[in-house]
Amino acid sequence: MERIGLRKFATLFLFGLLLLLGACGGPTYSTGSLPEIGSPEAAVQLPETPYRLGPGDRIRVVVFRHDDLSGEFQLDGAGSFSMPLINSVNANGLTAAELETEIETRLGQGYLVNPEVSVEILTYRPFYILGEVNRPGQYEYESGMTVLNAVALAGGFTYRADVDEILLQRGGSNAEPVVVPGNTRVQPGDIITVQERFF
Which of 20-29, 67-76, 97-106, 152-161 shows the lowest mean pLDDT across its residues? Predict the structure, then answer.
């Protein structure tokens, strides 16, 4: 009887010890939640910045009281488009508000008195997701999308994916890649690369 009691005590003690070690050994997540992508040590939270126009964007320009000058325009490979009267307009790197000011300034130089202009972005250039996702490639941008949403759109992670090191390049393929968390907002033209983990 004494041996049985000791055996039970030892079993319960080891079980309790394992539970304690399990609780201390790593993070736990409630049902339905996921760990955040990007390690806290390396991840960079990019600042929220106004969207800047670039090649491939499609815009609507409205010149109030002048329907003949208004219209929809596609930005070419240099981020420019052509308007009546003022010809080529370079919109590359400008926000919609900055482009409104630029067009108003140019129309006011000998063409119109106190022109009023509105610029609306109709379609954005795509973003790209590469590396260890099931369907890498080019995808249409949707407002409010995060890196995690982009991964889901691309079919999710492959089994080789390093979910703690997702790189983002903003500003073209020559931009410096940074490790970002999964809640980072995607912008048109971003290049997301999911790294392969080393087993």
Answer: 20-29
- d(CA 91, CA 10) in angstroms, rounded, equals 74
Residue-wise burial string across 172-183, b where 16 or more C-beta atoms lie within 10 A, e elsewhere: eeeeeebbbbbe
3-state secondary structure 131-197: ECECCCEEECCCCCCEHHHHHHHCCCECCCEEEEEEEEECCCCCCCCEECCCCCECCCCCEEEEEEC
Look at 17-31, 92-106, 175-189 and tell me which has the smallest mean pLDDT.
17-31
Q: Match 């992508």 to its residue by tokens.
A: 37
Residue carrying structure tokens 């889901």 = 152
Domains and CATH numbers, the chain: 58-123 (3.30.1950.10), 127-196 (3.10.560.10)
